[in-house]
Amino acid sequence: MKSVKQVAEYYKRKFGTSNPFEIAEFLNIEVLFDSFNKCSGCYLFIKNHRCIFINQNLEHREKMLVMAHELGHAILHRNQNCYFIRNKTYLLCSRTEREANLFAVNLLITDEELREYESCSIDQLSMIFGLNRKLIELRLGK
């Protein structure tokens, strides 16, 4: 069985992009934007149709992260419905949420970028990539 990192790398190579919105389009996953109070996004699998909802009120970087996370669910957990709760899902310990987070950070941050910034601290990497410290730690395998 492939690791989550290998799966993310496979889709980047297959479609020639690390943009989760473009990958979703290649995979015929419908992406819709709406306003949510506490939910940043969700993945729904209904009648063999995959759909990702993204909170339209998020900043661009957060939309990219949430989209990558939900795309991880669509690829890794195809038959499950999953909700991304702002400031909560990053810290959840369930296997599915951890895998979706791992997929997202491996999609959005390449090994080459990590090598380029290898002298940077976790806090510096967090600022450079615009991601939560916990997600940087996850990407670094800490």
From TrEMBL:
Pfam families: Peptidase_M78. Signal peptide: none annotated. The keyword Cell membrane does not apply. Keywords: Hydrolase. GO terms for molecular function: hydrolase activity. Residues 27-118 form the IrrE N-terminal-like domain. Its EC number is 3.4.-.-. This is Metallopeptidase ImmA. It comes from Anaerotignum propionicum DSM 1682.
